[in-house]
Structures are given as structure tokens and as C-alpha cells.
Design goal:
Length: 639
């Protein structure tokens, strides 16, 4: 399910990250906007017309590339877009775009499902550095996403430099709004225009020229309140926004179960080992019988599921269809179950945390189920089922639960490091032929098992074996022989599991393949699950940092390395334990003969804010982990 909403984001060009961080300025701009004007005219039923006009000067060749072919998109089933005029201006001379160079065509749907997206392609003539681009277009939204409701979210984070910008909303419905205004960039007003047809008018404009580009920054991780933004809505509360939607969902959920759903229900009733096992059985059965397929065409607003009988007959469905299917079976099993709307995304500091009701707050449907004082947040669109915890892409996010007599805003729980643990043990030894022999195992606990669950349904055993070896931190291209045993991944239900590994590496390759003037060295393995975060923590520069830093969801990884038939050269006093509020790490020598080193990585919070990155606490933590872990090698000699 894809929910569409209006954003005024003036950001046409995004560049790769460099090494330092700062706010951009006029010299960084690829285009300079003389003005941007946006006008919304909202009707009582929630439909509206939207006009946008801007005039921009091309500063460099990146701007030329961006406007040689200018693209706009709209939904062909619920919207209509018209170019009112488009022209290039060079030294005062105007070159209007010939209508034959304005192309409006439907795009093919993606492999994920059905869509109705149209692309309008505008080819501006004679575009060069110094040209002015002037365009005005109108969009008519003739099917409201939510009946009798309109919402707007404008986050002003222009990569380009904007001299003037104004957005006006004229509505036949009363308006409510909130404004975030760092550095007092925005000037806003709200008034009621009386007359035969009363209008409610909200206006937002820049007080001065402005850019919010974050440039030359590695691992850019935006925090919404760093930027000016405006939320405008016609509903006082979230329940009012979806009041016409709830009866549609209830009608489908309460309808008679098709034969497919009845069979799943009958088998689920025989499971007496607890609600979690019942849920996992139902979800895995639905996944087997109903293929997930997105449908983003705005049928009745785009938010209404199909009938259960149609879902069963076709054998596929989108998130709405799978959620009502799950809710209907769970209710028959004695659960209290409702569909919830959520913003499904991997981002950890998402823009979905709206202060006011907004259609753009959601892009996905899930199920909230409750039984015996236990609450479950369930997403049946994944290829596996895990009722005992959440999937990371819906964790710690606001959810609008659709229910009578009043829908309510809830929030999914945060994840904790204990819910996703990985233990890797590896025994290293060197043969007489110089090969590196490795024996060990990996234990996946809780959420850490999710990426591998059902793997045998999609990959060969050889591919999975390679995947586990690489996960432990070894390049499979240097394998001499290998054997991985102990696992079966044919079920779609997530459970703890472990694998046993026995392999050897080519001579002179792998963790023993390093040399110094003092002798050969061993480099401790680096598990793939932590490498991306590690680079961020090691190499991030914080002095002029503008945005935050994402670490991923909380988790715990323990790596134990045992080195046989070798002896270290020199002191091995490497016991260290860098700690902070965001993460804890440790490296300890557990034994010298054989040499045993135990590394522990614990991520406790999903992100670090920009302010925290500049704190003395983080700088001290960064210094400690560099001292403990960075480029550490063990010089050794054979026994």
C-alpha cells in the first residue's frame, strides 16, 4: 500500500558524501531559485487543485543536466497534471517549450505490484549555464485519499538556493497547523476569509534567502527538526481522518471466511502451545497461500482492502488484503485484532512522526492483536513469521489502529539488544603446509535469525554455506575446502538456530596472511554484521557535524577467537571496555595458551544525534574504541 501526500521539497540534486560537514551556502548551489510559488485550493470533500510556479537560474553544469529533461509524476487514476507554460530565458530572450516536447505517458508498474503512475517529461530548449528556467503547472486531485480530509506537509530542505518562496492553502474546510521554525526562516499567517463561500487561508513564506543543504558530510543522517517545516490539516484528530475508512475494514474482516481461510483456522485451533505458536502458524500458512503483491492504484482512495473471497480466489494481495485476512482468522481464534496503519521504513529517525493528522504518515498496513494481556504487532507481508518480537522496519513507529467507536494512535515497541544476539566461535590453527584451518559455530538468537529463516526455500545449500562463512568475517574466494552443517531453514517461522563450520583457507591467505619485520601476524576477524557501523564510529569527524549518525537497531554480537599452536610475541595486555549510552564494546584476552580473544559488540540505541556527536562523551568514547580495536594485529610465532 502506497499512500501519497503533498510535500514541497525543493531538492533536485543530491551528491555523494565527502569527509567534512557543514551547512551549504550560495556558492554550493547548482541552481538559484528567484522565486517558488505554491497554491492549494481545497474543496469540502478533500479534493483539491495545486498550482506550482518557479523561476530558477542555472549556476553550473549539474544544473544544466538537471533541467535538460525535467520530470514530473502524478497518479493517472486520481490526478490530472497540466503544464501551463514552460520556457528557457537566455539574456532576456525567451524560448518556449514546444508542446511536442512535453510528453505525458503512463509508466510500467514495478515488479512489486500494480501502479498508475504517469510521467510528464519536459525538454527545455537551449539550456546552458546562466539560463533561467520558468515553469508553471497545475495538478487536479479528483479522488481524495481520505474522504472530506486534506493534509499538507512541507519540509523546506532545499539543496538549491532559494531567494523567495511562498505556499498558500485556501480551504473550504477549517485548517489546523504546526510550524517548526529554526533560525526564524519562515513567516506564517492564518486567516478566515468571510463571504458567501467562507475560505480558510494559511500562508507560509521565507523571510530571507535560504538553503538547508548539508554538504561534504559522510553518512548523512537527517533529523527532521533541523529543518523548517509546516504541517497543515483539516482534522482535529487522527480518528476523524479515518472515520470513513473504519467501516470498510470492519465489513471485510467480519465477512464469512472463504474455504482457504477456514482450513487455516481449523488447523490453528489444534495448536495448544500458546498464542505465539498459533499466530506463527496462521501467518506462515497465509504466506504460503497468498502471494504478496502491491496495489497502489487509488481504488476508493487507495486504502480499502478487497473482499476476503476475492483475495482467496486470486491467491495474491497487498498489505491491506493480507492484514484483513490475518485479522479475520485471529478473531475467529479468540484474539482481539485490528488493522493498523504504519510508516514502514528502515529509517531510524523518520519523517513519519507527524504532530498533526496527515495522510503521508502511513504507507503500510499491519495487524495489532491481543490475547491474555499480550499485545502482538504483526506484519504478514514478510516472507517469514515472528510473533515474539517486531521486524525492524516497523519498530518504534506510530501506528493508527483502525477500530470502532474511535481509532487510536499507538506506537510499536522499541527493540532491545537482548532480542537479537549472535555468538560466533572460531578455532584457528596453522597446518604444516601453511594452510589456515578453522572450526567453529554461529548461534543466531531472536531477531538475528530473521534474515536466514526460510533460506532453504530460496537458496541452495552451497549458497547458504557461503553466506554463513562470509558472515563470520571470511572471504569465501580464498576457501580451500569447506563444510557447514547443523541447520535446516525450510520453515517460515523464525526460531533460534546454529551452524557448525569446518573449512580451510589457501596458504598465506586469511587472518594469518600478514607479515611484519618482527614476524607473521594474525588479524582478528571482523564480522560482517558490524562492519558498516564500525566504519561510522571510527572515521566520523564530529567538529562541524550537522546531521546525526545511524547505528541500526539494537543488537548484541559476541565473537570468540581461539588461536591454536601459536604463541604471541610481546605483551598482550589488550583488555579494554569502551562504554557509552549508545553502545558498549569490549576486547578481552581470556587465555594465552591457547590464545583466546573475546570481542563483544552491543548497540543499545539506533542513532546518535548531531548534538551528541559533538559532545565530550562521544569524543572520549570514539577515542577509546579506536585505541581498543582499530587496526589491531597479533604478532606470533608457531609452537
Amino acid at each position: 500500500m502506497k499512500f501519497c501526500y503533498i510535500k514541497i521539497l525543493i531538492c533536485f540534486f543530491i551528491f555523494s558524501h565527502a569527509t567534512e560537514a557543514r551547512w551549504g551556502n550560495k556558492k554550493d548551489a547548482v541552481v538559484i531559485y528567484n522565486f517558488v510559488r505554491n497554491l492549494y485550493q481545497v474543496e469540502k470533500d478533500g479534493t483539491y487543485k495545486y498550482e506550482r510556479e518557479f523561476k530558477a537560474r542555472i549556476v553550473n553544469n549539474a544544473g544544466v543536466d538537471g533541467f535538460t529533461t525535467f520530470r514530473l509524476y502524478y497518479n493517472g487514476q486520481s490526478e490530472k497534471l497540466n503544464i501551463l507554460f514552460a520556457k528557457t530565458i537566455n539574456n532576456g530572450k525567451e524560448f518556449s517549450v514546444d508542446p511536442k516536447f512535453i510528453q505525458d505517458k503512463p509508466l510500467a508498474s514495478s515488479h512489486q505490484g500494480f501502479d498508475q503512475t504517469h510521467q510528464v517529461l519536459v525538454a527545455f530548449p537551449h539550456v546552458q549555464v546562466g539560463s533561467y528556467i520558468h515553469i508553471k503547472y497545475r495538478v487536479h486531485v479528483n479522488i481524495a485519499a481520505y474522504q472530506n480530509f486534506f493534509s499538507y506537509f512541507g519540509m523546506h530542505n532545499p539543496v538549491a538556493f532559494v531567494m523567495k518562496s511562498e505556499t498558500k492553502i485556501e480551504s473550504a474546510l477549517p485548517l489546523f497547523y504546526k510550524v517548526n521554525n529554526p533560525k526564524r526562516i519562515l513567516k506564517t499567517s492564518y486567516r478566515v476569509r468571510k463571504g458567501k463561500k467562507r475560505k480558510y487561508v494559511f500562508t507560509s513564506q521565507f523571510r530571507r534567502p535560504f538553503t538547508a543543504a548539508i554538504v561534504d558530510e559522510r553518512y548523512w543522517f537527517p533529523e527532521r527538526d533541523l529543518f523548517p517545516w509546516v504541517e497543515v490539516t483539516t482534522a482535529r484528530g487522527w480518528s476523524e481522518m479515518v472515520k470513513n475508512l473504519v467501516p470498510e475494514y470492519e465489513r471485510v474482516i467480519k465477512s464469512p471466511l472463504p474455504e482457504l481461510h477456514k482450513k487455516i483456522l481449523k488447523a490453528a485451533k489444534k495448536i495448544k502451545t500458546g498464542p505465539e505458536d498459533q499466530i506463527d502458524f496462521v501467518i506462515s500458512s497465509l504466506i504460503d497461500k497468498i502471494r504478496y503483491l502491491g496495489d497502489w492504484r487509488p481504488i476508493r482512495g487507495g486504502h480499502v482492502p478487497r473482499a476476503l473471497s476475492v483475495i482467496a480466489k486470486t491467491g495474491f494481495g497487498d498489505c491491506k488484503d493480507l492484514s484483513v485476512s490475518l485479522a479475520s482468522v485471529l478473531r475467529a481464534l479468540g484474539f482481539k485484532a485490528q488493522v493498523g496503519l504504519v510508516y514502514r521504513h528502515w529509517s531510524l529517525y523518520g519523517y513519519e512522526n507527524f504532530r498533526l493528522p496527515n495522510g503521508g504518515a502511513f504507507n503500510h498496513a499491519i495487524v495489532r492483536a491481543e490475547k491474555k494481556d499480550k499485545v502482538f504487532w504483526l506484519d504478514p507481508t514478510n516472507r517469514v513469521s515472528y510473533s515474539r518480537d517486531l521486524f525492524e522496519d516497523i519498530a518504534d513507529k506510530p501506528v493508527l489502529v483502525l477500530q470502532n467507536p474511535e481509532s487510536k494512535m499507538d506506537r510499536t515497541p522499541k527493540l532491545h539488544k537482548e532480542g537479537g544476539e549472535i555468538h560466533i566461535t572460531q578455532n584457528f590453527s596453522i597446518t604444516r603446509k601453511g594452510l589456515t584451518e578453522v572450526k567453529g559455530d554461529i548461534q543466531f538468537k531472536g531477531r538475528s535469525a530473521i534474515p536466514f529463516t526460510g533460506g532453504s526455500l530460496y537458496k541452495s545449500k552451497e549458497s547458504l554455506d557461503y553466506l554463513f562463512i562470509e558472515f563470520s568475517g571470511v572471504d569465501t574466494s580464498i576457501l580451500n575446502r569447506w563444510k557447514v552443517t547443523g541447520y535446516s531453514l525450510k520453515s517460515r517461522i523464525v526460531k533460534d538456530f546454529s551452524v557448525q563450520m569446518d573449512y580451510s583457507l589457501e596458504k598465506g591467505q586469511g587472518p594469518f596472511g600478514y607479515w611484519t619485520q618482527l614476524g607473521p601476524v594474525f588479524r582478528l576477524p571482523f564480522p560482517g554484521d558490524i562492519s558498516g557501523v564500525w566504519n561510522r564510529l571510527f572515521y566520523i569527524k564530529t567538529r562541524d557535524r550537522v546531521s546525526g549518525l545511524g547505528l541500526g537497531q539494537p543488537r548484541r554480537l559476541v565473537l570468540t577467537s581461539k588461536l591454536k599452536n601459536i604463541k604471541s610475541v610481546g605483551d598482550l595486555n589488550i583488555n579494554c571496555n569502551p562504554k557509552s549510552r549508545w553502545a558498549d564494546f569490549s576486547r578481552k584476552v581470556k587465555s594465552l595458551n591457547p590464545l583466546v580473544v573475546k570481542d563483544t559488540y552491543e548497540l543499545k540505541l539506533p542513532y546518535i544525534t548531531a548534538k551528541e556527536l559533538r559532545s565530550s562523551e562521544f569524543l572520549s568514547f570514539q577515542k577509546d574504541i579506536r585505541h581498543c580495536f582499530e587496526q589491531f594485529l597479533v604478532v606470533y610465532k608457531k609452537i
